[in-house]
Structure formats: C-alpha cells, structure tokens
Amino acid sequence: MSKVWWKESVVYQIYPRSFMDSNGDGIGDLNGITSKLDYLKELGVDVLWISPVYKSPGADNGYDISDYQDILDEFGTMEDFDRLLEQAHQRGLKIVMDLVLNHTSNEHPWFIESRSTVNNPYRNYYIWRKGQKGSEPNNWGAMFGGSAWEYDTATDMYYLHCFSKEQPDLNWEEARVRKSLYDMMTWWCEKGVDGFRFDVISMISKVQTFPDGKKDGGLYGNGWPYIMNGPKVHDYIQEMNREVLSKYDIMTVGEAAGVTLTEAKKYANTNGKELNMVFQFEHMCIDEEKYGKWTTKRYNLLDLKRVLSKWQTGLEGKAWNSLFFGNHDQPRSVSRFGDDRPEYRERSAKMLATCMHMMQGTPYVYQGEELGMTNFPFEDLTQCRDIETLHYYAELTENGIYSNDQMMDCIRARGRDNARTPMQWDTTMNAGFSTGTPWIAVNPNYKEINAKEQLERTDSLFYYYQQLIRLRHMNKIMVYGHYKLLLPNHKDIFAYKRNYYGKEWTILCNFSEQEVTCKYANLTGKKLIISNYEEHKKGILQPYEALVYQE
Ligand code: TEU
Ligand code: CA
C-alpha cells in the first residue's frame, strides 16, 4: 500500500460559525480560529477542514455560496484568511477548504444572470425545465423537504435544487461551468491551501431524461437514483483531477452521499485518477426509519459492526476510507453512539474514539468531539436554526405525521443544530465562545464540559485523543494494518485485529454499560497500547471499556 501524508494524518473539522468569536458579534470567525491554533496543535491533529467561509447569504450556513473567491464579512476578510493560512502553516497544520460544487446560492451572479432570460449566456449554468401540465417537471423531492423544482416567473420555467430553493444546482453538462469551477479551484491552490473537501460531489451528474422517481409512501418521488453517482460523475471528477488536483500535492475528500462500495472504489481509487478518499454515510443511516433520519430509533451495534467492517475490508488496498462518527450534519457522537449520561460520558467517548482511530483510514475529529460535547436539550423550535430542521418540522407536523412533541424528540436526537452549538472553551459567559449573544445557544452543560477543565486534568478525554493521535503518528500499523473483525455476532463488543508486517494489535470495545465476558480480554504476556481504564479484569470488559494490546 503506498504511503502518503494524507493517509497518516488526522483531520479536525471546524464549523467556523460555532468555533470561536473574536469580535463579540456572536458569530465565530477566522480570527477566532487563528486564536485557537495552539489548542489544535496541542491536540496533535495535522489537517484542519474548514466548513465554508465564502460569501454567502447564509440560507444553509455557507453551503450556499454567492462568491467562491471572497470571504463572508461575518467571518472576516481575505487578509484574515491569509493570516490563518500562514499561522497554520507555521505550526505545521494544513488547511483543507470545503467546496460546494453541486450548487451555488441563488444570489450568485451566475444565477442572477441565468434566471433573467432564456437567451442569457449563463442560462445553461443551471438546470432549467418546462413544467408539465402546470406543475413541476417531475416528482423529485428535495433533500430539505418539498419539491426539488422551483418555479420562476421571469421565464415561466422551473430550476432544479436538490437542497433548498436558495441552492440551485449547477449544470455540469455545460463545459463553461466546469471550466469556471476549475479556474476558481486553481486560484485557491495557488494561494497555498492544502486540499479540498467536496460537498455532495456524488450528485453533480444527473440522468438527463429526468424521469419521475418511485413513490414509496412519501410525499415526493425518489429522485436520488437519478442524481447520486450519476452517469458522468466519474468523467467529471477525472477531468477535474487532470485540470487541477493532479497539479498540486493536496488532500481531496469527496462527500459522497449514497455511495456504494463499488462506486467508492472509483471515487477514491489508489490509481489517483479521482479523489484521495470518500466520506461515506452508510453507518450514519443505520438508525433511519420510514421518515429517514427523523426518528428516535437507537442504532444496533451489530449493524454498526457489519457496515464499518464491510467498508474496512472492501476498500483495503483498492481505495481509502475516511473514519468518522460525527460532523456538522450529524448529532453529537457520544450522544448517538455512546452514552452521554454524566457517569458514562467520558468513558464511552474514549471507547468510541478508540474504536474509530484504530481502524484503517484517515480519522476525522469534529470540533468538540475531543471534549465529549453532547446533544442539546432543545425544548422548542425557536431554539433551532438549521434550514433542514425548520423545513422538516413544517413538512412533518403540517402533514400530520408527527405531533410537535414527537418532532421535538426527533430534533433532540437527530437535528443538525446539535453539532452546531458553540464550542465550550471554559466556564465564563457563553462558554468563552463569545462576549456577545451567540447566534445559537450554548449547551447548558458547559460548566462541566469545556476545554479549560480538560486541559487541566491529565486523564481527560482531550488528552486521550492526543494520545490516540500520537500513537497513530508513531505506529504505521494503525494507518496501514490489515483489519479483521472478531466476534462478529457479539451484541455488545466491537472487537478487531490489525496486522502489519508481523505485528498484531487487538482492539476491544465494550459498547454496553454492563460488564461482559470476553476471552480476548487478557493482558498476560501482552503489551498494553492504550485503554480508558487503569485496572483490568482478566476475561472481562468493564462498562464501556476500550482495550488495545499488542501480541
Ligand atoms: O451535506 C450533504 C448531505 O447529504 C447531508 O445534507 C445530509 O443528507 C443531511 O445533512 C442529513 O441531515 C452537505 C453538507 O455537509 C451540508 O451541511 C449541506 O447542507 C448540504 O451538503 C448542502 O450543501
Ligand atoms: Ca465574530
């Protein structure tokens, strides 16, 4: 397996709006990030992925870009960005930009031109279709609820938007669109950024006949089979690779909703023709039900093991994995996959971190995960900010599918705002995030859960992450070792081995609050690598125990 820096790195994802506010307006910003670089260096991560900071009206917090080559005022200036990049590089930290190429903002000049007349030179930059019998061109639903088509009076036609109507999809069939995007990316590379995270890159090529999707009881047809991993997606990415990516030593990760193993082996093939790695979501879907993520269903460990093992084994030697349990679109990992009750929170978070960081792939730490930040106790919708949450609240309650209380239960369990509450730095006002009024409330548990407290306590979760990251830097087995699942049918234990040039590590994780017997839990004659317990019991894993040893 070829060895490269982005396989040996640990990535830290920053959601700028919620990371650190430097000027008291309640919104995190670039200077705030710069002020915390030493904190990130102390944690030991190598790469910072920064969610979008470009000009944007903010319908989807920056995932609706109106100028790819400028910075949103709320986040600062291009000078602030340049300083962040330089300060990061001085500390040996790399910066990966989050690029949204599937769609722009409806306030992007291209779209303003495009919608004006059918003959406008930018008309074809977006996807316009005539209505059918006075309604939408087809029955596709959008990711954030409602139809995927929006009617525009100016030309009496509809445009496609896979997300909100403020996010019209770009038409990748149009060569000038692709050229414009490649030029823009080259500009960022020349500036010295270290890579890109490509938002929903699996969705850029649509089946051009735009057929109706199957209706399985939902309000809209399922268009995703005609959108995800579409007919020309690999041609486009290969072109982008030839035109831009291959010319720079950068890291590229494709967010690939709906990606299958077969597709992933194309996107992230080791032949280097497309991207370095994919961010796949199969393990993020194991707790979905009839209305998708809007449920309070708890996942089953057997499903988690099956899915993650499938990706571990399936990509080995052929493509490269990203490893994550949370991001800015997902609930907090300790609340979802661990146990966020005070007596178990830190222990189970350490166990989850062990389970993930010991796998093959590049691990991603989402801001606050290293502190064990938890979901937020949302009581009513006025506390929510996320466009997806607000849209689905309306859609599911107005159609009588959920009551207010049921929907609030779902939001507490799954809403994206859980991950977007401000970073908890210390016990001062607003958890030290801002001296003003934060744009979204701080989690009331910040007095117990914050960076300052953890930096002062040697057995904290923060230092446990630091230890895991150091281990990865020192042990190639953690990066490249062969993965083999143990005890596949055990309902409480996630156990596996890694092998690398005659070395063997055993990883044992107890996902339950009970003690469980485990024949592998025996340190006699073994070298302990890391554990979240000081004392060990032979043949037993204690509640949420994680244990890694070398044969
Ligand atoms: O997310 C794409 C995506 O598939 C997720 O939206 C996911 O389906 C959803 O968040 C589940 O709740 C990316 C970004 O990460 C997200 O923040 C953006 O809202 C979205 O694209 C549109 O750009
Ligand atoms: Ca600010």
Low-confidence stretches: none
Biggest sheet, spatial arrangement of strands: 11-10-9-5-2-1-13-12
Helix content: 25-40%
Structural class of the secondary structure composition? alpha/beta
Relative strand content: 15-25%
Overall pLDDT metric: 97
Fold topology:
Elements: E1 11-14, H1 30-35, H2 37-43, E2 47-50, E3 54-55, E4 67-71, H3 78-90, E5 94-100, H4 109-116, E6 128-129, E7 149-152, E8 157-160, H5 175-191, E9 195-199, H6 233-243, E10 251-255, H7 261-267, E11 277-279, H8 301-315, E12 322-323, H9 333-337, H10 342-357, E13 362-366, H11 387-398, H12 404-414, H13 451-455, H14 461-474, H15 476-480, E14 482-486, E15 493-500, E16 503-510, E17 516-517, E18 527-531, E19 540-541, E20 546-550
Parallel strand pairs: 1-2, 1-13, 2-5, 5-9, 9-10, 10-11, 12-13
Antiparallel strand pairs: 3-4, 6-8, 7-8, 14-15, 15-16, 16-20, 17-19, 18-20
This protein binds 1-O-alpha-D-glucopyranosyl-D-fructose and calcium ion (CA).
Describe the model:
- By secondary structure, this protein is an alpha/beta fold.
- Helix content is 28%, strand content 16%.
- It has 15 helices and 20 strands.
- The strands form 5 sheets. The chain has an 8-stranded parallel sheet with strand order 11-10-9-5-2-1-13-12, with helices on one face.
- α10 packs parallel to α14 (461-474) and α11 (387-398) packs antiparallel against α12.
- The radius of gyration is 23 Å and the shape is globular.
- Calcium ion (CA) binds at residues 21-23, 25, 27, 29.
- Calcium ion binds at residues 21-23, 25, 27, 29.
